[in-house]
């Protein structure tokens, strides 16, 4: 036995489905907007004027591990230079 929806009951069902769809879309949109605000990264400005030139390791909690080229340099004021160059030790 099948029931056919006619007249007002079919219109009501269509109306409820459309209202539910709009509610879902608005809910997802609102959720995305709220999450976007919460995912901003913290930022800080660091000046290296009080740092000694050369290796950053051990200065004010900084640590440098590995062979990468990272040091405090004088470039119109102290700055942290980071490059892809590696310092590798060769044993001859």
What report would you give on this structure?
The protein has 92 residues and is α+β, with helices and mostly antiparallel strands. A hairpin with a 3-residue loop joins strand 2 (68-74) and strand 3. It starts with 7 loop residues before the first helix and ends in a 6-residue tail after the last strand. The chain folds into two domains: 7-41; 44-92, no CATH class. It is rod-shaped and about 85 Å long. The model has no long low-confidence stretch (mean pLDDT 78). It has one helix at residues 8-38; strands at 54-55, 68-74, 78-86.
Short characterization:
The protein is an alpha+beta fold. The protein has one helix and three strands; from the N terminus they run αβββ.
Please name the defining characteristics of this protein.
single chain; 92 residues; alpha+beta; 2 domains; 3-stranded antiparallel beta sheet; 3 strands; 20% strand
């Amino acid at each position: 036995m099948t029931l056919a929806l006619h007249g007002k009951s079919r219109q009501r069902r269509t109306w409820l489905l459309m209202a539910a769809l709009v509610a879902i879309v608005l809910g997802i949109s609102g959720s995305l907007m709220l999450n976007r605000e919460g995912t901003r990264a913290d930022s800080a400005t660091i000046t290296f004027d009080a740092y000694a030139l050369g290796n950053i390791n051990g200065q004010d909690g900084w640590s440098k591990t590995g062979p990468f080229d990272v040091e405090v340099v004088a470039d119109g004021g102290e700055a942290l230079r980071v490059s892809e160059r590696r310092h590798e030790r060769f044993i001859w």
